[in-house]
Write a structure and sequence with these properties.
- This protein has about 450 residues and is mainly alpha-helical.
- It has 19 helices and no strands.
- The two termini are about 35 Å apart.
Length: about 450
């Protein structure tokens, strides 16, 4: 239990540095990472390597995605495209149903896009809707983040469920079918329904209607001066189209055992998040700039402003990755494995529980899920448990209680300009609801399949 105690003390010290001493979040994360590494007994020569690995590993996977995503969102917003999309959704669904419109749109986008990509693309549109309706950005932000998180945790082709399915030798198609059955009601409960509870828990967070960091200063347009709805949606969702195409091809490859060829390799290349976003940015430069006779210098000024607005956010997210890596290298995962050695729990509950503890201890949902697979597979021998449900139970456990050692926690906090208390009461709680409600539906489904 000693490593888990160190993790708990590290989190307490981090909260004191940020909330009581008002130390910069990034600096606080790195300081606590050093302290925790020392307390876990890591060799002194390995500590800096672990910290640099955590920073590089986290930013290496999302810096380009965040950069291109922020540029794309800013170009669409500064040309009036986000305003056009927002007004059209409001007119089609009506003000009373706008939360459901956001959930549906986020769910569809979340199937094809990684959580981080969906977040940076949807923020400007959700912000515009909130601004037009004069409601809190968080009123729409919680349903949006919920839909993206549910698809990330339960549905292939996201990394967690896809790789776990391979580890468990589960049928990827059945994981997708059962994942949909579980993901839809879970998104409704943790999204629009939970928003009502969150508003009572932290009413001050729902009073914030000013500009948010990810969007920066937003220009106002007359509706007739904005780009058409079709071109605006096509530009904003072009990375979704490219990544969805690559996903469909990948699924067909797996189902029909299609041999690789140059054409398929090209599709996979343009379907990679970085490539898809780069191509989409170039298209946005034309549709939102050149085609509207906006000078290239002005278009590039928007791009540069978008990067400035997320600079500190990227460092903070990297700091979360540093903390996570120190916990992994310090052997916290091994400590959790020892706790459950020889357990006789139901495989579904055991997979969820181990993934949940690893997620809380380590921070990374993907690392928690993959580590759980390695621990649970030997315990599944001789069991007739449904393998697709095992994948989903592991995924559900791996999203629980996102907090200070998870990059997603800092993304949500910084994007919506929340305090630590507000982030715990909204993001951490909604992730826990997704995990627990998801497990409930998995156990219910296990009765019938």
């Amino acid at each position: 239990m000693y490593p888990l105690l160190i993790v708990a003390l590290g989190v307490i010290v981090l909260l004191i540095l940020i909330m009581k001493l008002n130390l910069n979040t990034f600096i606080s994360l790195v300081i606590v990472s050093f302290l925790v590494a020392l307390a876990l007994g890591m060799p002194l020569g390995d500590i800096v390597d672990s910290i640099e690995s955590g920073m590089g590993g986290t930013l290496g996977s999302i810096a380009l995605i965040f950069g291109f995503g922020a540029i794309l969102g800013k170009l669409v917003a500064d040309a009036g495209g986000a305003q056009r999309i927002a007004m059209t959704l409001i007119n089609r669904f009506g003000e009373k149903n706008i939360q459901w419109a956001v959930v549906i749109a986020s769910f569809i986008i979340g199937i094809a896009l990684f959580f981080e990509v969906g977040l940076v693309l949807l923020i400007p549109i959700v912000y515009q809707i909130a601004k037009q309706l004069r409601v809190s950005i968080l009123y729409l932000g919680i349903p949006m983040a919920t839909a993206l998180s549910v698809t990330h945790g339960f549905l292939p082709p996201h990394p967690g469920p896809t790789v776990i399915a391979q580890q468990y030798d589960a049928n990827i198609g059945m994981v997708l079918v059962y994942g949909f059955i579980i993901a839809v009601p879970t998104a409704i409960i943790a999204g629009p329904l939970f928003t009502r509870v969150a508003r009572k828990l932290v009413p001050e967070a729902f009073e914030k209607t000013g500009d948010i960091k990810a969007v920066g200063e937003v220009k106002e347009f007359k509706l007739e001066d904005t780009p058409g709805f079709g071109v605006s949606v096509m530009t904003a969702l072009f990375p979704v189209i490219l990544m969805a195409l690559a996903t469909i091809v990948q699924l067909l490859e797996d189902i029909w055992n299609i041999p690789g060829n140059v054409f398929i390799d090209i599709i996979h290349l343009i379907g990679e998040p970085t490539t898809a976003l780069l191509i989409s940015v170039l298209i946005a430069v034309y549709t939102m700039g050149v085609a509207r006779q906006i000078p290239m210098k002005q278009v590039m000024a928007s791009a540069e402003e978008s990067i400035r607005s997320i600079g500190m956010m990227l460092l903070i997210i990297g700091g979360g990755g540093v903390f996570k890596q120190v916990l992994i290298d310090g052997g916290v995962g091994d400590a959790v494995a020892d706790i459950f050695a020889g357990s006789n729990l139901s495989p579904l509950i055991l997979a969820w529980l181990i993934a949940a503890i690893l997620r809380i201890a380590l921070g990374s949902a993907t690392v928690a899920a993959l580590t759980t697979a390695g621990l649970v597979i030997p315990l599944m021998q001789g069991s007739d448990v449904n393998l697709a449900l095992m994948v989903l139970a592991t995924g559900a456990g791996s999203v629980i209680a996102s907090h200070v050692n998870d990059a997603g926690f800092w993304m949500f906090k910084e994007f919506f300009g929340l305090t630590m208390k507000e982030t715990f009461s909204t993001w951490t709680l909604l992730e826990t609801i997704i995990s627990v409600v998801g497990l409930g539906f998995i156990l219910l489904l296990s009765i019938f399949v």
